[in-house]
Amino acid sequence: MRFGVEFGSYPADLDPAEVCEQVSLRARVAYQNKYDGLFVAQHYLTGPDAAILQSIPLLAYLAGQVREMYLGTSIFLLPLHHPVMVAEYISTLDNLCGGKVLFGVGQGYRDNEFASFGIDKRERRSRLVEGLEVIRKLWTGEAVTFHGEHFHLDNVMSQPRPAQRPGPPILMGADTVKTVARVPEVADHWIASRRHSKSFLREALPAYKAALERQGKPYRGLFIFRDLCIADTTREAEQRIEDGYERRYRRYQQWGQPGERYDLKFDQLKRDRLILGSPAEVVEQVMSYHEEFGAEFMWFMVDWPGMDPSFTLETIERFGKEVIPQIKRRLNEAGEPFSTA
User: Fold this and answer.
1) Residue 339 in this model has a pLDDT that exceeds 70
2) Domains of the chain: which residue ranges?
3) Least enclosed by CB within 10 Å: which of 9, 113, 180, 265?
4) For 115-140, what is each residue's pLDDT tens digit?
5) Which CATH code for domain 2-331?
6) Which residues of 115-147 are buried (b: 16+ CB within 10 A; e: fewer)?
């Protein structure tokens, strides 16, 4: 198994310079504690309550500080962007970090993002599929001619190629059983979101595996994103996270996030979704995801609106020092590079 940390939105009243410093510090602590990857979310126009650092410039900034770590977008809103730009940005990032990019994409759902970009939300699936086709062609380094519904290229060539060949693994978010089953048509791995309860995973995973089989692709384990808080006891961890946890999930409901219900109280939200407690308890919870779902790469949201930043650093450090070694010892494994074949 591999492990990582995710950076997402933050309260808009925080000083952006301070947030940048906190992100950089958390990245370095993760690096020092043997995490495998860093991931960054993406949204636009999140005010007035929330703000977010854009993923590609942030990952490029972090690349020089955390050599040999995977750098992932989780997720990048591909339908809002032109694939020529994205292909070259991701290729540049892949070369900056020595071929460790994990390119996670999603189709998006927020009406104000599509309206502000002047893009018909009803076209998001077709723009995503077509965009990925263009990106893969450009990553070959060969001359590309392409005429689709949304994008047109005539005998053009993109350089430099990504460090990974034929390109970075493409991960995709999906929030319903129907969309999960469509992931293998265009991507290498499904990202199971931290918003997904275990009940949803149990429903969606068989559909995902069946779709992989139809495409002639093997199941290589689950890429799964979870919420995490570590303290000396479960109750102490809950007290640290409860208010901010409810606030963030209420925002998802307000934004129209598809999937399950999120306008719930903490006791309901945390069920089969949140990993928290002492390091020993967290070891068992993480192992349960590996044993039931074949989790291959798990990364975690570890900060919450209003939470003391020292608690975030404590979670990152204690997971690295007290949880990862126990998991590795129990699995007795050495990770191999990801394949897109």
Assistant:
1) no
2) 2-331
3) 265
4) 999 999 999 999 999 999 999 999 99
5) 3.20.20.30
6) eeeebebeebeebbbbbbebbbbbbebeebeee
